[in-house]
Structure formats: structure tokens, C-alpha cells
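2024-03-11 09:14:02 DEBUG pipeline.ingest accepted 1 chain
2024-03-11 09:14:02 DEBUG pipeline.ingest length=138
2024-03-11 09:14:03 DEBUG pipeline.predict start
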Amino acid sequence: MEAELPLRDATDLLGKQTTIINALWQNYSTVTGVLIGLGITKTIDGRWAVPVRLAASIAFAMFSYGNWVLIRQACTVQASVKKAIVAALGEDGIAPSYRHVLETLTSTINSARASFGYHLTIDAAVLAALWLPQWLQK
């Protein structure tokens, strides 16, 4: 016999996963903003030494990878919870207005694939901000 996840628990878990994902993206945004700002500042003020750019790039790549692993993990849990909620929507006894809320909630979930695309695009922009000033000054 399979244990079922009650709808209330599923929605609570979905909310918690969404909060985790939002916090991870917020931390990631802060770090990327700082690095882009440093890249722009050094473009205006002068050159950053190559070893400093390299160290910043390696540190960012490691942070970015770790952040992505956590986002992917949360997205995977979120997708599983979405399946449970969608399955529960097929059952009788759910008020139509609540059903609509749940359908809307589950339709807003980003897939891990979409999140990975966003992550890679931002990663490329950060690395470009760090290295383009160096390459353009030559």
C-alpha cells in the first residue's frame, strides 16, 4: 500500500520549496551583482590583475555550481509535489475555487531545465563582465 501525501501537506511542502528556491536565487543574485559591479568598476578605474580576475572567476564558478545543485534539488522536490497535487485535483470533494488556486499555483513552477538555462545565461554574463574589460584594454 502506498502512503499518500495529503493535499494540505503537499501545498505546505510546495510553499517551503518555493521559499528555499527564492532564497537561493536571492543569494545568487547578490553575488552576481557584486561581481558584475566589480567588473564594471574596474573598467572605469583601471585594470584588475589577471590573477585576481581568475580567482574571482574560479570562486564564482564554484559558488554557482553549488547554488545550481541546491536549486536543482529543490526543483526536483517541487516537481514531485506538483505531481501529487495534480493527481489530487482529479479527486472529488475539492471546492472549485480551491481547485483553481491549486491549478494556478502548480502552473507557475519553473522546471529544472528552465532554471538551468537562466543560471547558465547569468553565469555567462558575470564571467563576461569580469573578463571583457581585460580583453578590450589590449
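2024-03-11 09:14:41 DEBUG pipeline.report The chain is about 85% helix and 0% strand.
2024-03-11 09:14:41 DEBUG pipeline.predict end
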